[in-house]
Design brief:
By secondary structure, the chain is mainly alpha-helical. It is built from 3 helices and no strands.
């Protein structure tokens, strides 16, 4: 079984999202005004707070996918 286009797109999206350093405009301005170490901490905090909702959504999507295959 090879990789379908959907699986390739999902893998590419995950790789790109990991390197994107997600920040909203307000967080970006705050990080700019801080020194480099505090900016990294802010980025880490954003990732920590974003991980649980992403895992819940991924688990729900996986369950829907599995249910659709039956």
């Amino acid at each position: 079984m090879g990789m379908t286009p959907f699986k390739r797109a999902a893998a590419l999206a995950l790789l790109c999202a990991a390197a994107a350093f997600p920040q909203c405009a307000m967080c970006y301005r705050t990080a700019q005004s801080l020194n480099a170490a505090r900016g990294r901490v802010l980025n880490s905090g954003i990732l920590v707070l974003g991980t649980p909702p992403l895992l819940l959504l991924s688990g729900f999507a996986f369950l829907l996918y599995r249910r659709g295959q039956r």
